[in-house]
Design brief:
The protein is α/β, with parallel strands linked by helices. The chain is 43% helix and 17% strand.
Length: 869
């Protein structure tokens, strides 16, 4: 083994060995109950690796590797999503920048061929990056939501749902994205806080007896007004209900109606009703049988019969300026004020949403939702952390029809044909004969990805893969697509296979930038996982001051990035912490060096076998046994932070810091029983650590005498101890460790050099030599009486006795006393401050409970430190 562990040398070689071995491609056979499968959330074909991908892949790979160790036949389903809007946007940008042309100029067929060519160039980029992470999905069976076989499944689902009455076509108010020129669903809309101008506009009464004033931030939509609504209980307007007002500029008569939706405390309490451009107005219009004219087109420009010629073709923002100017000229602007409110934006293109009446395909969800609610309520599908169950159930209880059509060219074209004579043909195959034209729209990308767990395995055919690996076991994903994807997979899985698509849903943490903002390349807060793995530029968010160079990440390696992200992932959103990645690098180095120590002194013929000879052997075997249980239980409970930290505590703390130090004398003597025991412990440790840090453990395993095959192939834990733990041996070692820690703490407090060997007298039993060796004590006199020892410079309490350190040139008693008293004063002051703070009812009543509890915890720690001092 090399002196230093170098991830850059090891990881590519090991990753290739995993690929070549075929361990990630299981044959579809065996009892499905003994198989294990996960379907990767398919990344966009346009995508590159980001921190969310890195964390989620680490989670899934950990689960897959543990399942292999349990002897299960595992399949991690891999593939990408065609990402309709995102991919089409990318290609359109490239066409404009490189060729100065557009999809309309190219035509649909040529444009689609350009998208396929783009996919061939860039589509595998994120797959290659996933390999660099050390993930082991089934690369030989990569799927794509736009594959021919997958496409057949998508069209069949649409046709079946149409025939069952779930899918229908209707004119309805939709979220129109002017950026992508397509309708999008409610779930693809981001609500952002913006500050607009609220205009108070007078609408003259037809009777000539005055006017009624309405407040709006969108004067350009007033051209499509069809009524004015007031609250029926608003005494200010009750006399006007049933009267008419005149629409300024246009001159159309508007009836004044009463509706309970109107809020009396917003604006003037009078609301202009524009059903064609506002979802709430649309509902009011339906209740009162009002028309819904439109004055804004799909391109975000003014159009329609209701628009005066001088405004036709203007962008909505320009039209607003012009209309306000005309209203001001007419003396109809009563006043203006700033108004901060939330406004919908497309999370696809970033454009402000225009609610428009549009002819679209919709899918009824209410009946499909019922069984999808039942399987969660009954526990057949469980969310982790459990709090997401309520979030899911609340949304499902208020589910609305889903607009499934998109005005795009890249995607699954809707399998509907219209004839010149008015006939409609809905089928997976085109009708025969002339006069038919196919619907130009495509299906929402989430419609096709909703079939992912079963369509990737060959459905609707009853393939061997489907029989062996469906239902899948776990879905790991982010909270942002619980409704977009998770809920729809459950509904469609139950409808088309009769089975749940997965039994557990793990909602992983969202990794934020170090300053708490969302990670974004454009904001300078995004972190490239590959820059962490291979070394690269730190984003500006790491800079200490504006404009300062943040420097570069060291090459931490994939194991460190994986473990660091898992250690951060506590189920809550967390800020990225580079210290965790650095801590993981220390862990891999520590394990490497420990392995070199053991393997450098073990004969090639040594057999890994637990042969405990001394108390420390029994102690480490018991600790290993507990670590195996703790890490395994944490992974099975989806508590990946706890799993990572439990592994760290065992390897770094118990194995390396204590056991190897205790056993070194026997190891150096060449004792065969010690060698066999150490080899056993090392083998079990790398097996335990493998799901979390697979590269370094695979490399170490290759050097262990007698190891065969790859550790990634599924070596199971063979049993961490030889029989039951020896409680007496454990207790003795624990007392020795406590004694050594107490002496080391005193040495540090007394400023005794680490290299100094002190003379001492020990009042204890059973572990004198161990304490003397590791606490650097020289002439250790074993005394009988506890008092009156000559030359004692300090007395240190240890379990079962006391150690008297004898005076020497290395011990400055007076300096140690001064330092201790200074620390005592500091602690007493801190305790007094904390007690005063907690006695202040203003603080305990007003501060968040977590803050108050943290202060109490801090106080207890201070008291314990003072007592120990």
């Amino acid at each position: 083994m090399k002196t230093r562990y170098e991830p850059a040398d090891v990881e590519p070689r090991i990753a290739q060995a995993w690929l070549d071995s075929g361990i990630s491609h299981p044959e579809p056979e065996g009892d499905p109950a003994e198989n294990y499968s996960i379907a990767i959330p398919p990344p966009n074909v346009t995508g590159v690796l980001h921190m969310g991908h890195a964390l989620n892949n680490a989670v899934q790979d950990t689960l897959i590797r543990r399942a292999r160790q349990q002897g299960k036949r595992t399949k991690w389903i891999l593939g990408t999503d065609h990402a309709g809007i995102a991919t089409q946007t990318q290609v359109e940008k490239e066409l404009l920048s490189r060729l100065g042309t557009s999809r309309e100029e190219l035509g649909r067929e040529e444009f689609i061929s350009r998208v396929w060519a783009w996919r061939e160039r860039y589509g595998s980029q994120i797959i290659e990056q996933i390999k660099r992470l050390g993930s082991t999905p089934d690369f030989s069976d990569e799927r794509f939501t736009f594959d021919d076989r997958y496409g057949e499944a998508v069209l069949k689902v649409f046709v079946d749902l149409y025939e069952k009455g779930y899918i229908y076509r209707d004119r309805y108010l939709v979220n129109w994205d002017p950026g992508s020129r397509s309708a999008i669903s409610d779930l693809e809309v981001d609500e952002r806080e913006v500050t607009d101008t609220l205009f108070y506009i007078d609408y003259p009464l037809a009777s000539g007896s005055g006017s009624i004033t309405v407040a709006t931030v969108r004067p350009e939509t007033m051209l499509a007004d069809v009524a004015i609504a007031v609250n029926p209980d608003d005494e200010r307007y009750q006399r006007l209900i049933g009267e008419t007002a005149i629409l300024p500029i246009v001159g159309r008569k508007l009836k004044i109606i009463a509706d309970g939706y109107v809020k009396t405390d917003f604006g003037t309490g009078a609301l202009k009703i524009t059903p064609g451009h506002d979802p709430n107005d649309f509902e009011i219009g339906n209740r009162h049988g009002l028309p819904h004219p439109s004055v804004i087109g799909e391109d975000g420009c003014m159009e329609g019969e209701a628009v005066p010629e001088r405004y036709l073709g203007l962008k909505t923002g320009d039209a607003r300026i012009a209309i306000v100017a005309e209203l001001a000229e007419l003396g109809l602007i009563r006043r203006r004020e700033e108004y901060t409110h939330t406004v919908p934006f497309s999370n696809r293109s970033g454009a402000r949403i225009e609610p428009l009446i549009s002819l679209q395909w919709f899918m009824r969800m209410d009946e499909l939702a019922e069984p999808a609610v039942d399987v969660v309520k009954s526990g057949q599908i469980k969310f982790h952390p459990e709090r997401w169950t309520k979030v899911y159930l609340d949304w499902m209880g208020n589910i609305r029809p889903w607009c499934v059509s998109r005005q795009l060219w890249w995607g699954h074209q809707i399998p509907v044909w219209y004839h010149d004579d008015g006939r409609v043909h809905v089928d997976t195959k085109a009708p025969d004969g002339p006069g038919w034209e196919r619907d130009p729209d495509v299906l929402d990308t989430w419609f096709s990805s909703g079939l992912w767990p079963f369509a990737t395995l060959g459905w609707p055919q009853r393939t061997p893969e489907l029989k062996a690996f469906y239902p899948t076991d776990v879905l790991s994903t982010g909270r942002d697509i619980i409704f977009l994807w998770v809920a729809r997979m459950i509904m469609l899985g139950l409808e088309f296979t009769g089975e749940i698509p997965f039994s557990d849903v793990y909602i992983h943490s969202i990794i934020q930038a170090p300053d708490g903002r969302r990670m974004s390349k454009s904001l300078g807060t995004g972190i490239d996982p590959l820059a962490l793995i291979d070394g690269g530029e730190r984003p500006p968010v790491f800079a200490k001051s504006a404009g300062e160079d943040a420097g570069e990440f060291p090459a931490y390696g994939a194991d460190a990035v994986r473990w660091g992200l898992l250690a951060m992932s506590s189920g809550q959103d967390v800020r990225f912490n580079e210290e965790k990645v650095s801590q993981a690098q220390q862990l891999t180095n520590k394990l490497w060096n420990a392995s070199r120590l053991v393997l450098g002194r073990v004969d090639a013929g040594t057999r890994a076998e637990a042969r405990p000879q001394a108390p420390e052997d029994h102690w480490i075997l018991a600790r290993l046994q507990r670590a195996v249980a703790a890490v395994g239980e944490a992974i099975d409970s989806f508590e990946f932070s706890r799993a990572a930290l439990s592994l760290y505590d065992f390897v770094y703390g118990e194995l390396c810091d204590w056991y190897l130090e205790l056993v070194k004398p026997r190891l150096y003597e060449g004792d065969p029983d010690t060698a066999a025991t150490l080899l056993h412990i090392l083998t079990e440790t790398v097996t335990l650590a493998h799901p979390l840090i697979p590269f370094v453990t695979e490399e170490i395993y290759a050097h262990i005498p007698g190891s065969e095959g790859l550790l990634a192939g599924g070596r199971a834990q063979s049993g961490a101890s030889a029989g039951n733990p020896d409680a007496l041996a454990e207790h003795e070692v624990e007392r020795a460790i406590e004694a050594i820690q107490a002496i080391r703490a005193w040495r540090d407090a007394a400023d005794v050099k680490a290299s100094a060997i002190l003379e001492a007298q020990l009042r204890a039993e059973g572990y004198e030599e161990t304490v003397a060796h590791l606490a650097r004590l020289g002439r250790l006199e074993i005394g009988v009486d506890g008092d009156g020892l000559d030359g004692s410079a300090a007395a240190i309490a240890i379990p079962g006795g006391v150690i008297h350190v004898l005076a020497s040139a290395d011990v400055d008693v007076e300096a140690a006393t001064r330092k201790r008293e200074a620390k005592r004063s500091e602690l007493e002051a801190e305790i007094k401050r904390a007690e005063g703070k907690l006695a202040n009812q203003g603080f305990t009543a007003k501060a968040p409970p977590a803050v108050v509890e943290a202060e109490r915890t801090k106080l207890e720690a201070l008291r314990a430190e003072l007592e120990a001092l």
